[in-house]
Write a structure and sequence with these properties.
disordered N terminus; FN3_sf; signal; alpha+beta; five-stranded antiparallel β-sheet; 33% helix; cytokine receptor activity; rod-shaped; single chain; binds 2-acetamido-2-deoxy-beta-D-glucopyranose; FN3_dom
């Protein structure tokens, strides 16, 4: 009741006087630290930490309510975590004051805070897989404390850098890549490549923290080099040029041997008939009567009418065979004569 008698200005004067008397230090350097949508208000104090000062921290969203809501109260820590009450698209104001034995300091306010714009996006996880001479890069978004990165931002892109280990000066940069995965190709075989990625939010021209360099060694791509093709061609050519004539030669020898064993020359028809006719019975009579049974053999040589081929002349077998045949023929002719004389 007494208070209502005072004019408002008088009350304010009394309050400010009491604050001055209390000499409680106003929190200094009030700041919002926000990583991956976690929101923490931090501040400093000029007062010795041995004092019994406590702090109260509050927040307010611009819009519906102008009232502040208390999140941290009577705490000695120089920080207050607001993550649980934050939504990504709000606009927040935070404030904090020092309190001690019923006395309070003035409020110290933070600047307006836009979680989606102002939060610091951490490093994504980068996984590398070496396949057929290429390296597959898979990027996994950092985990947000509120919602997911894809839910918060309609368009998430990535800055990707890669380099061959030992050649850090020659970095390939691929900015604003829309896909969280890509294939690095045209890499050298059996070389170690390192990749770094960071999230990029184009809407705010905002880059996240770069990941630590992840490295992977390429294998061979399985494709055949032109040099290897040439070697294979030369080797196959050599093999063919050696084996084909050899096979041909072998086939020719076989043919020659077969021809020698099974000559194409045919017995004359009358000779065949003579040989196939059964012997006359009188021969046996003569054989029985004659005291001296002398077996007489006549060798018959059959000489093919077809002219000898060029190659056959070169062949020793044929020459010998021919010579032998001729010799035998002469011999048989002699025998024939002898038989005639005897008869
Ligand atoms: C802090 O508070 C305790 C009691 O809660 C009191 O005994 C002590 O003297 C206080 N210290 C200071 C520096 O005010
Ligand atoms: C704001 O605070 C006033 C008094 O402290 C209270 O009457 C009012 O209901 C509050 N408004 C909201 C939206 O909380
Ligand atoms: C405020 O602090 C002063 C001295 O620092 C003390 O005398 C006074 O009792 C305090 N006020 C309250 C309400 O505790
Ligand atoms: C985006 O930010 C970079 C530095 O972070 C700056 O160099 C560039 O000019 C900015 N681009 C736009 C369109 O604001």
């Amino acid at each position: 009741m007494a208070v209502t008698c005072f004019p408002e200005s008088g009350l304010l004067i009394i309050l400010s006087v009491s604050v001055v008397l209390a000499m409680l230090p106003v929190p200094k350097n009030v700041r919002v630290t926000s990583i991956n949508m976690g929101v923490v208000l931090e501040w400093d104090t000029t007062h010795p930490s041995s004092s019994n000062h406590t702090y109260t921290a509050e927040y307010r969203t611009s819009g519906l309510s102008r009232n502040f809501s208390t999140v941290c109260q009577d705490q000695t820590a120089l920080r207050c975590d607001f993550t649980a009450v934050i939504v990504p698209y709000g606009i927040y104001t935070f404030r904090v004051r020092t309190e001690s034995q019923g006395n309070t300091s003035r409020w110290a306010r933070s600047a307006e805070f836009f979680p989606d714009r102002d939060t610091w996006i951490g490093a994504p996880a980068v996984k590398l897989t070496s396949t057929e001479g290429n390296i597959r890069v898979d990027i996994q978004n950092p985990v947000m404390k509120v919602k997911t990165l894809g839910e918060i931002y309609s368009r998430v892109a990535y800055h990707i850098r890669y380099w061959k280990q030992g050649k850090e000066g020659e970095v390939t940069v691929m900015n604003d890549m829309e896909q969280p995965g890509l294939l690095l190709n045209q890499l050298e075989d059996w070389s170690k490549y390192c990749v770094q990625a960071q999230v990029f939010i184009k809407h705010y021209n905002k880059s996240g923290e770069p990941s630590k360099a992840t490295c992977e060694t390429t294998t061979t791509d399985g494709k055949v080099e032109p040099r290897e093709i040439a070697v294979v061609l030369v080797v196959s050519f050599l093999v063919v040029t050696v084996t084909v004539p050899l096979l041909f030669l072998m086939a020719w020898r076989c043919y020659r041997v077969l021809k020698f064993l099974f000559p194409t020359a045919k017995l004359p028809e009358h000779l065949k008939q003579y040989l196939m006719e059964p012997p006359h019975p009188w021969i046996f009579l003569v054989m029985q009567n004659s005291s001296q049974l002398e077996e007489q053999c006549h060798e018959v040589s059959i000489i093919s009418e077809s002219p000898l081929l060029e190659g056959e002349r070169l062949c020793g077998h044929t020459e010998e065979q021919r010579g032998m045949m001729e010799g035998e023929e002469e011999q048989s002719q002699n025998e024939n004569r002898e038989v005639d004389k005897m008869q």
